[in-house]
Amino acid sequence: MSEDFNDNKTIQAQSSEAISGGGSGIGADADYVRPAEVADQDLYHGHSFITKWIFCQDAKVIGVQYFLLATFTGIIGLILSWLMRLQLGFPGLAPFMTAEHYYQFVTMHGMIMVVYFLTALFLGGFGNYLIPLMVGARDMVFPYLNMVSFWSFFVAVAVLLASFFVPGGPTGSGWTLYPPQAILEGTPGSGWGIMLMCISLILFVAGFTMGGLNYLITVLQARTRGMTLMRMPLTVWGIFTATVLAMLAFPALLVGALMMSLDNVLGTSFFMPTILKAGEVLEYGGGSPILFQHLFWFFGHPEVYIVALPAFGIISDLISVHARKNIFGYRMMVWAIVGIGALSFFVWAHHMYVSGMNPWFGFFFATTTLIIAVPTAMKVYNWILTLWRGNIRLNTVMLWCLGFIVTFVNGGITGIFLGNVSVDVPLSDTYFVIAHFHMVMGIAPLMVIMGAVYHWFPLVAGRFLDEKLGKWHFWLTFLGAYSIYFPMHYLGFIGVPRRYFEMYDSPYVTSAVGMNEFISLAAFIVGAAQFILIYNIIKTLKTGKPAGHNPWQACSLEWLTPTVPPEHGNWGDRLPTVHRWAYDYSVPGAKEDFITQTTPPSEVANTEVEKT
Amino acid sequence: MSDIKIEGYEFKPGFKGMAKDTGSDQTMFKGVHWGKAMMWIFLLSDTFIFSCFLISYMKGRGSTIIDWPNPSEVFGLHVFGVDVPLLLIAIMTFVLITSSGTMALAVKYGYEKNKKMCGWLILATAIGGLTFVGMQAFEWGKLIHEGVRPWENPFGAPQFGSFFFMITGFHGTHVSIGVIFLFIYAYKTFAGHYDQGKRGWFTTMKGDYVEIEILGLYWHFVDLVWVFIFAFFYLW
User: Fold this and answer.
1) Are B166 and A268 in contact (CB < 8 Å)?
2) Which terminus of chain B has fewer Cβ atoms in its 10 Å neighbourhood, N or C?
3) In angstroms, what CA-CA distances link A391 with A396, A502, A560, A588?
4) Alpha-carbon gap, residue A212 to A516, rounded angstroms
5) Alpha-carbon gap, residue A175 to A345, rounded angstroms
6) Which residue of B18, B32, B45 is the best one to mutate when testing the A interface, meaning the one whose CB has the most A CBs within 10 A?
7) Å from B182 to nearest chain A CA?
């Protein structure tokens, strides 16, 4: 079989054995890379301030736009979480915190953080900035569509935030928006709030589809010469697979949001059963609330991996660069990403164990859920094995990476608890669940985002972020986040329910009250610590240490642009030619401890370089 | 297509060829235009949307307590003193499928750079689509006149009205968007934008006859979805 592939010298990704380049056979001939299949991309260069910075078609600018807007919404989500913790830790201290407001803040915090912050930031922000640079393209393949994608996101955020100012305020039905209560009178925001939420989600999905098509086609059809799929950095693999998930999962959310809007506005009964309210039968009847739960979680569970997979990819690259070692088991990592992505479509009903569905369903979904632990554990082992005997630089980036591994393992293990029906039923709707998913898809991806910001800021801005401030930021966030979420496991075990505005005189109060105060104080500190990063960015943007070319001695393409920061079009006159994967660190026999992806084989003939 | 030639690259047949293309550099789908690949992936995503709609419909229809109305009565027409079941739908389906045929011919003439034929065929497709939307509006009007609403239905389960108006409405929106683009593309064909490779507004993308094929993919997809909606609503 392997002879069939010999006619093409670029197809060498099949084997990962090391070849010892003993002179013979390695010459200029080995440097040959097939000519370009597609003509060089023609780009629309902006001429005015508006076309250069606002309605801009440069993926890098769009990436930064996504990043800034997502961060802005994220800060609103952070402030909402402060207000929630204020109420939970010190009930009655803030007189404006009524039960209605509490539920509204819970809902908006959840939806903002999951969709408008993490998803937009990983895929819109990092995806736009890094995919064209890492695969060696001039830009995304459809720059105009990419611009429209960002502005749809902008409108989606505007509609979402507008719901704070409409009669009744934003919806307070919990981020899962379960009907029937989401649209029944008595739930805060049951009229305008839920309607604006649905519209905003539909806009987000539409905008994301435009962006997602760009990411997929750029990866599939616009790689540079020599860049095979198995030479791509894992960051690209993570974002790519997450985008595939998003393209297939968001439709369910779109349909659910549309049907809910019709129930709300037109009075249809897709999700609304016959309801008795104060002795009177409502107009609704005959619908199925469980149907919404299925639609929502068919989106909702892949959504977890839409956030997690880019984080997995990015962390792999950061660890490899800062441990000066190739990523352990690259191809295993790729298949694990793809496998997790595929499995994530078969586990959604593990969010619905207490919905009253058929118990055999629970059995099936518990099994598939636990199977996901296998590729996930493989990834964790590979990260640790990459660190093992590495030449570790213990800088801020590496600290965030280590923080990620710890929080992710912690959150992953509690996931195994909750994946089992018999354990999940008593723990359902307690703080254990809150602790689990904040650890695994709140804090862990946030650690990756922070690590990525410290890692790629020198590329985006041309200057390093301040290390000392960075370390303060890390330790406050890491220890603080543990102080918040670790005690919550205990709160869950003693049965403190989630989404309760206040405990009043329930027996929980005695043992949980002090812990709730402690958690709230930690939350205030962690939230405030995030502003260190903003201060750090503003400060170093002008006065930071200049980074220059390839400051981390990395192999991947994004650091090899002719100008730093890269200009529109990325590569100057000539596109780069790729000869190897992105992980040739500390190769025995090489002059330096890294060999860039563009280094031709003839220059490293006497090294034990991986054959990729 | 087998007539694609790529310098320095030898195609292999069958599964081995697919594996080789996947493992190669630059592109996964050799010689496939970016826009065409994009449309295929978009349609995959859109398939999931319509699947969610139809599965929800099956669930809703399966779990109502009140009986579902008989489609051959509800959708029947009273013509010349005779009740003909599904008459309008048969005509609508025929028109839409025919428009798929004219679309396919337009793509063929486009690649042959036959501007005139291509333009007229796109126009014919657009008119077919417009006729379909018009007949759908007539059917909606008829049902509304008989008292069917999204929230109620004199013939049986109220979910019938909800699902019918939502799903045919969503499909009709797809057709309408397609019709708008067909008119734009017909104009662009007649104006010679594809012959000259004229650049679009605020973009550097050059006009090319492949755009007609991309729109054709969308149009055929909308047709295919109609076949499913037809089967689920009118034959079940």
Assistant:
1) yes
2) N
3) 15, 50, 23, 14
4) 41
5) 20
6) B45
7) 19
Q: Which amino acid is at B204?
A: T
CB contact under 8 A, A266 and B151: yes
CB contact under 8 A, A230 and B23: yes
The answer on B54 and B151 residing in a single domain is: yes
Cα B209 from Cα B120, distance rounded (Å): 15
Domain residues for B22?
1-31
Q: Smallest CA–CA separation between A478 and chain B, in Å?
A: 38
What whole-number distance in Å separates Cα of residue A147 and Cα of residue A157?
16
Average pLDDT, whole number, for chain B? 91
- Strongest mean pLDDT among A221-235, B3-17, B151-165: A221-235
B198–chain A Cβ distance below 8 A for any pair: no
The answer to whether the beta carbons of residues A493 and A462 sit under 8 Å apart is no
How many Cα atoms sit within 13 Å of A512 on the Cβ side?
Answer: 25
Q: How far apart are CA A529 and CA A466, in angstroms?
A: 15
The tokens for A351 are 């969010």
pLDDT in tens, B137-184: 999 999 999 989 988 888 888 899 999 999 999 999 999 999 999 999
Q: Chain A contact for B26, CB < 8 A?
A: yes
Band of the pLDDT at A23, cuts 50, 70, 90? Answer: very low
CB contact under 8 A, A227 and B66: no
Band of pLDDT at residue A99, cut at 50, 70 and 90: very high
Say how far apart CA B135 and CA A358 lie, in whole Å: 43
Q: How far is B147 from chain A (nearest CA, A)?
A: 15
Is B45 in the same domain as B145?
yes
DSSP string, A304-335: HHHHHHHHHHHHHHHHHHHHTSPPTTHHHHHH
Interface with A, mutate which of B52, B57, B152, B225 (most A CBs under 10 A) = B52
CATH code at position B97: 1.20.120.80
3-state secondary structure A29-64: HHHCCCCCCCCCCCCCCCCCHHHHHHCCCCHHHHHH
Q: Are A66 and A119 in contact (CB under 8 A)?
A: no
Residues B39 and B24 in one domain: no
User: What are the C-alpha distances in Å from B178 to residues A372, B127, B163, B172, B208?
Assistant: 41, 11, 22, 10, 18
Q: How many CA atoms lie within 13 A of A87 on its CB side?
A: 22
| Spatial separation of the C-alpha atoms in residues A409 and A432, rounded to whole Å | 15
pLDDT digits (tens, 9 = 90+) for A474-496: 999 999 999 999 999 999 998 88
Report CB contact under 8 Å: B162, A43: no
Pair (B69, B131) in one structural domain: yes
B96 and B52 in a common domain: yes
Q: Is B114 on the interface with A (CB under 8 A)?
A: no
Is the predicted pLDDT of residue A17 greater than 60, yes or no? no
Q: Is A452 a residue whose pLDDT tops 50?
A: yes
**pLDDT tens readout for residues B44-78:** 999 999 999 999 999 999 888 888 888 878 887 77
Residues B7 and B76 in one domain: no
pLDDT at A43 over 90: no
CB contact under 8 A, B10 and A291: no
**pTM beyond 0.90:** yes
Task: Please choose, from the candidates B185, B184, B209, the residue with its C-alpha nearest in 3D space to the C-alpha of residue B195.
Answer: B209
- Alpha carbon B117 to its chain centroid, in Å, reads 22
Minimal CA separation from A137 to chain B, in Å: 10
The answer to whether residues B209 and B124 belong to one domain is yes
- Residues B14 and B113 reside in one and the same domain: no
Q: What is the pLDDT of residue A9?
A: 40
Question: To 10 degrees, what angle do helices A359-387 and A396-419 make?
Answer: 160
Query: Minimal Cα distance from A216: which residue of B?
Result: B38
Q: Which of B7, B157, B203 sits opposite A144 (nearest CB)?
A: B203
